[in-house]
């Protein structure tokens, strides 16, 4: 386990410590900071500040581009430079291993496999779950993840699944037992639905309002969701803004509960027999 992000993330997609990394400020730009939020409630408590490279070498988030004369907070489509004043989607830039904002029209161009020579991939909007097959605690233990919450995605540059979880400094990488993952993917259909680079499997085993993310819960089942990859980094950025002390504090737990409530509300049941 390391506080460096999963390999093959940042610009260039190099190995750990070689690819570009996303600064903490970059993660903060991913979420809209509530008005009136104090700095004390956003920054980690003394003693929890991580090392300089706090966020994954992978998928640094780039919110819409901005021109010099744009008002503060203006976001533009990184494809056509249209101002983003409503819905917009995200694209994974496979060359830079980054996420870019796109207007609806540009986003739709890259929903087709192989568009632009495969450089850009549209991040799907679907959120799925399989309530008939929650992940058993014994199976979760097989993955040897030291916390109660993590996300997993297939990095096509590396040709394998990588895993990480939120921490005070961003994403902390987990060493993943790939053989165990492959076995679970045959038993849990949702895991096999994962689209490379653009979707993630999000697993959570703590009760709402209960244990912090780092504390493995004493329960036999874990919630599993298939979600867009950008939602993982949005959650990471938001939790880091609020994180206090060792366990995250009340505000971080409330943010996590809100995130989970949104997933449960929006998730559709995985279609079987596909």
What does this structure look like?
This protein has helices at residues 24-28, 39-42, 104-109, 137-142, 178-187, 229-242, 249-266, and strands at 61-62, 89-93, 98-102, 120-122, 128-129, 135-136, 149-155, 160-167, 170-174, 199-204, 221-228, 268-269. The two termini are 36 Å apart. The chain is globular. Mean pLDDT is 73; it is low at 1-63 and 207-218. The protein is of the alpha+beta class. α6 runs antiparallel to α7.
What are the defining features of this structure?
274 residues; alpha+beta; 7 helices; globular
Structure at a glance:
The chain is α+β, with helices and mostly antiparallel strands.
List the helices and strands and how they pair.
Blueprint: H1 24-28, H2 39-42, E1 61-62, E2 89-93, E3 98-102, H3 104-109, E4 120-122, E5 128-129, E6 135-136, H4 137-142, E7 149-155, E8 160-167, E9 170-174, H5 178-187, E10 199-204, E11 221-228, H6 229-242, H7 249-266, E12 268-269
Parallel strand pairs: 1-3, 5-12
Antiparallel strand pairs: 2-3, 2-4, 5-11, 6-11, 7-8, 7-10, 8-9, 10-11
Helix pairs in contact: 6-7
């Amino acid at each position: 386990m390391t506080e460096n992000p999963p390999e093959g993330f940042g610009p260039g997609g190099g190995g750990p410590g070689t690819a570009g990394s996303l600064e903490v400020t970059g993660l903060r730009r991913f979420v809209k900071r509530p008005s009136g939020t104090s700095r004390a409630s956003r920054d980690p408590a003394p003693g929890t500040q991580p090392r300089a490279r706090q966020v994954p070498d992978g998928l640094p988030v780039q919110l819409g581009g901005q021109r010099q004369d744009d008002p503060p907070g203006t976001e533009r489509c990184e494809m056509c430079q249209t101002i983003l004043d409503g819905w917009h989607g995200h694209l994974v830039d496979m060359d830079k291993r980054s996420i870019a904002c796109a207007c609806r029209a540009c986003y739709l161009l890259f929903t087709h496999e192989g568009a632009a020579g495969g450089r850009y991939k549209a991040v799907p909007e679907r959120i799925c779950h399989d309530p008939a097959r929650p992940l058993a605690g014994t199976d979760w233990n097989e993955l040897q993840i030291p916390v109660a919450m993590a996300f997993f995605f297939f990095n096509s540059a590396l040709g394998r699944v990588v895993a990480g979880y939120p921490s005070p400094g961003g994403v902390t990488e987990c060493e993943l037992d790939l053989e165990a993952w492959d076995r679970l993917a045959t038993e849990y259909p949702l895991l096999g639905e994962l689209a490379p680079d653009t979707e993630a499997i999000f697993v959570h085993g703590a009760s709402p309002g209960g244990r912090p993310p780092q504390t493995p819960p004493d329960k036999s089942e874990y919630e599993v969701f298939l979600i867009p990859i950008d939602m993982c980094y949005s959650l990471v950025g938001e939790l880091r803004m609020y994180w206090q002390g060792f366990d995250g504090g009340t505000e971080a737990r409330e943010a996590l509960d809100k995130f989970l409530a949104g997933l449960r509300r929006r998730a559709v049941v995985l279609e079987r027999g596909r």
